[in-house]
Task: structure prediction
Amino acid sequence: MDFLRRRLRGSADATNSPTAPSANDAPADPVDVDAMERDYELDLLRDEQGRLDELQQRQLRYANYAWEPPAQGGERRSDDEDATPT
Result:
């Protein structure tokens, strides 16, 4: 519960937190940050996969290959002005 309070209140409560980084702490290793981000993305994908059933997953997987028929009547519409000058 304390974690949610700190996240929602922002930096004002973070200074009172015992786990708040101080100015003397070394910056986080970029490799660790990348690994944490990858883990987070994997968790999101797993949650998404658990939320969707097989049909919905298949629809999302093949959405880029969906065929859409061409517009009927061509690109020119009745409210377009004539392209030929009179």
Q: What stands out?
A: The chain has a mean pLDDT of 76.
